[in-house]
Amino acid sequence: MDNFLENWGNAAQTALGFFWMALWAFILGYALSSMIQVFITKKNMQKTMGSSDAKSVLFGTFFGFLSSSCSFSALATTKSLFQKGASFVSSMAFMLASTNLVIELGIVISIFLGWQFVVGEYVGGVLLILIVWGLVALFNSKSIISKARKNLGEAESEDIKSTPISEKIQNKTNWVKIGKQYGMEWKMVWKDVSIGFTIAGIISAFVPDSFFQTLFINTGEGQTSFGFFTLLQHVIVGPFAAFMTFIGSMGNIPLAALLFGKGVSFAGVMAFIFSDLVVFPVLRINAKYYGWKMALLILSLLFTALIGTSLILHYSLDAFRWLPDISSANIADQDHFQFNYTFFINIGFLLISGVLVYLGFFSKQKDISYMKEMAPKSPLLEKVLKYLAFICYIWLLGGILVKYIIN
Q1: Position with higher pLDDT, 36 vs 41
Q2: What global pTM score does this model have?
Q3: Which of 16, 36, 80, 369 has its CA 20 to 30 A from that of 51?
Q4: Pick from 400, 236, 257: nearest CA to 303
């Protein structure tokens, strides 16, 4: 019993420590994302993405980079672009970029995993787009794509006025919109982040290394060199491990750091991170939008692309001797709560967060209408995630009480 209480306290402290490490990154990332989405116009986006040539794919990637990291937001925007005339390839480029090339994800990865994984995330995001582009060209799926476009029906016409960015910055209404968008960004991820960081703490305290050595073959005991079939098993198992968590990429980053610390290969960890678009909730939404044939086509393309991308990244970094050192990845053993630069940066960004929340929800202009299209989530899944998040809060509070008061 004493051992359980000790592990409970350590799990809660680790989970909160992980979140404290990443807090300023979340605030910075979502603040920048909110400003980009309000200030940067998307007028004629569908026109610039109307074909499958390099220019259209480049525009799709660029607009995805400017978008939110939330998978559900990416799915809804991708559907709208495809419905309004964007090509299938450029739509896929947008979706992959908006979940892999966004600013906030790179910042959080740099905190937990280091620069090699940031390089892997951004270079890998581009590779994913190129591989999907190549696979679409290789396999003639025009009939499935055409039928999916018909399933969506005609898009409503829009009258979008272009305004210079300099004028938008001076408009107080846009800053209210930024505050509202910032609030929506947190609303989209708070359950995933709460569950993901709590699970990371639980795994670090309760799950033995032998479990990961069974799940990912040839890991642990100082293993730093991996054969091809070992890497192939890692990049196949990685997406299934992500599927079991049912949470988005932002919540999965501390879990990815723990996997790497347990000896999982660089390729396996990257496959785990890339897997937020191959989980069942995403498959269900794509099926609702386009039909099951198209949804399965997208799943197959993304799964194949992430396997190839993860292997290419691993061997490329290995060739330059840039693969990160597994022995230096014990983030669970760090002292996360100190009066250091992280403390003062977090305080500063919490003040910025307070200003944005005030502008969006408590200022005199708070009643300005500003809505963001979202993919239809499963009510049951959302309710389950909500209750799980509240259970996580109870678990964390209990663990802290056990560690610092009872014991």
Answers
A1: 36
A2: 0.80
A3: 36
A4: 236
